[in-house]
Amino acid sequence: MDFLYKIFRFFLLPLILLANFLQNNLASIFTPMNMGPVSEDSYSLYIRKNIKNKNFVLDFGSGAGFFSKLFKPNKYLGVEINKNFVDVSRKKNKKYKYRVIENDYLKNYENKIDLIFINNVLHHLTDKQILETFSFFSKKLKKKTEVFIIEPLLPKKFFSLEFIMKVMDIGNNIKNKRNYLGLFKKIININNYKIKKLEIGSVLVVKGYIKK
Fold first, then answer.
1. Are 184 and 149 in contact (CB under 8 A)?
2. In principle, which of 65, 133, 134, 159 could form an S-S bond with 187, CB 3.0–4.6 Å?
3. pLDDT of residue 30
């Protein structure tokens, strides 16, 4: 299935690049990252149930602010590499704080953050970028900072709606459970993980805390 996934992505690359361009430049009206299963109310409810209200949350890869309102404004910082997304988030969620990922983007928040929330983000990064990101977290954040990660899993059925959606995903590094966990064990102490089935496809949910 991994082979077929890569083959189809190769042939559909022009469409994927077009979607990426539209998303990066027309973020206020085109955000495919918020389409499909992640737009379901049940998905948002699941996230809310897994985040303690007492936590100050770092939303790493906050996108266009689609999930910000699941958290309390005074206990939230969204960070995103795409400045267009940050601009849209600030207009849409005026009570929330957002920063572009550049330089020391956690300045003045190092001792506030209790939990890093990462929702469908890491498959957009290379393994090297993920290791570098968590090395930065390890140096900057408190010991025992919690981590809550949700990432899409490689589809198991060919020609399913899940297969088509994940082939068209802008992220290039969707993995299977074994490969995700092998990578995550290098950067976090894993407390537990599970595969959660959505209406379309499955995601891997991992909880733990950053390694120091």
1. yes
2. 134
3. 53
Residues 6+ apart with CB under 8 A from 159: none
User: CB–CB of 21/13 below 8 Å?
Assistant: no
Measure CA 199 to chain center: 19
- List Cα–Cα distances, 69 to 66, 81, 169, 177, in angstroms: 8, 20, 24, 29
Domain 2-210 -> CATH class:
alpha beta
DSSP alpha helix (H) spans, the chain: 2-11, 13-25, 41-49, 83-92, 127-140, 161-167, 177-184
57 in Cβ contact with 114 (< 8 Å): yes
What is the widest separation between alpha-carbon atoms in the chain?
48
Give the pLDDT confidence score for residue 102 in this predicted structure: 93
52-76 mean pLDDT: 92
pLDDT of amino acid 39: 57
Domain ranges of the chain: 2-210
DSSP string, 162-173: HHHHHHT-S-S-
Query: Nearest-CA neighbor of 9 among 167, 174, 171, 166?
Result: 167
**Cβ neighbours of residue 126 closer than 8 Å, sequence gap 6 or more:** 173
Structure tokens belonging to residue 151: 């990432």
